[in-house]
Each structure stands twice: as C-alpha cells, then as structure tokens.
Amino acid sequence: MHPVSSLTLQGASNFRDVGGYLTADGGRVRRGHVFRSDHLAGLTAQDLARLGQLGVTHSLDFRGAAECQTTPYNIHGVQRVALTIEPSVIAKMQALVARGIEPSAEDTVELMRGTYRDFVNHNAGTFGRFLKHLLQVPTPQVFHCTAGKDRTGFAAALLLSALGVDRATIEHDYLLTNQLYRRDPNLEGKGPPHVMQVLWQVQPAFLNAAYEAVDAQHGSMQDYLHGAIGLSPQELTALRALLLERA
C-alpha cells in the first residue's frame, strides 16, 4: 500500500491517483494516469490548472440526470463522458419514510449492500464501458460520481481487480473516502442523522456485498470481467500493459 498521493484540490475533497498500488505478480499500477474523485463542479481556477498539469483529457461521470443538473460542470480541455447510473438508495430510504418506516442504521447498511449488488447485476454494461474507455483513450482520465464513494468506489475496485491488485489493498483504497470526503449538506437530502451517517460513508460490508454477488452469480472476478463486464482476454492484457509497470 502507499500513502495518499498529495493531489489536494480546493474544490474536490476526494480526488486521488489510483496508481502506486502493487499487484500480486510484482507489478505496480502506473501513477499519473487514472484518477478518482467526487464531483468536479466546485473546482477553482487553481484546481483547473492542476488538472491541466496532470494532463487529464476526459472525465468519466457516473452521476444520474438530476445530479448532473444540480452540479453541472464544463472544463475546458476535458471531455465529459456520461456513464449514467441513477442513484437508488436515497429514493428507497425516502419511500420507507413516506410509509412511516424509519430505517435503522442496520436497515440502511442493508440498503447500501443492495445497491452494490445492483452494481454487479444491473450495471455491468456501464462499468464495462468505463474499463474499455480507459483502454481506448490512453491519456490521463478522472472518473467520478457525486461523492466519489459508491459508483466510483466499485469502479475503482473493478479496475484494480482487473490489474491484479489484491482485495485487502482495494479495500484500503476504498475506505480512504472516509478520511477524505467532505460531506455537503446541500447534496445529501433529508433523513434521520443515523441514516445519513451510513449513506455518506463507506463500509467494508458494502464492497463485500459486491464481491459476494460476483462470486455467487459469476463464479469469480475473472469470470465476471470476461463475462458480464465484457472485457476479452486480449483487452484485459492490453489494459494491464497500459496501466502497469514493474515495481
């Protein structure tokens, strides 16, 4: 594992390089090539200059339609690519409250676990397009959602898995969100504090639900990548050639 790369931006709290991690076969994920973040609508002029210095050419945006309308952005020199996955967990929580049911923290965790199972079983095509875009456009790119924690977290887990990084290291990267992300009440919606605390952090149980779905429904991560995600063995080899170096 490695310390968080010092890429602090003023207008995005969860921006970081996914490079630097070691793989099981002695490689290292290239730094300076793929970045993950929360939304990019609040970037300052200094932040935009930093993106330019990093050479970022594309932003891969997993947000839903309403999220994009709430926090739109247009960054000169950076092409935004819509990889739309509509958020569902807050709507499910609000539906429960409307029926007079206040979810417990445990209920909310299970709602989040369901969201991650949905990523695996219903959004594989979108995550496949994400990985293929990284392969097809071999320039620095950033991928993000609103908080950079769930859709972005699962995308990062898929990418690092494809590159041969072990699950403990992937979990480490995933949990960094709890240290980095600055919650924005304007984006969170309304809900009981104990519920919102669960929704706007990450837990190993969330990511483990995705792994369990991958293993149960698809056999293994390798089978999932080649099957539902749609990466051919040749594409996986090419992705590793692009994004790995010898440690």
Describe this structure in words.
There is one protein chain. The protein has helices spanning 45-54, 65-70, 89-98, 105-122, 124-136, 151-162, 167-175, 177-180, 185-188, 193-199, 204-218, 221-226, 233-243; strands at residues 16-17, 27-29, 34-37, 58-61, 79-82, 141-144, 244-246. It has 247 residues and is an alpha/beta fold. The chain has one domain (16-246): Protein tyrosine phosphatase superfamily (Protein-Tyrosine Phosphatase, Chain A, Alpha-Beta Complex), CATH 3.90.190. Strand 4, helix 2 and strand 5 (79-82) form a beta-alpha-beta unit.
Q: What structural keywords apply?
A:
single chain, Protein-Tyrosine Phosphatase, Chain A, 247 residues, five-stranded mixed β-sheet, globular, alpha/beta, two-stranded antiparallel ribbon, 13 helices
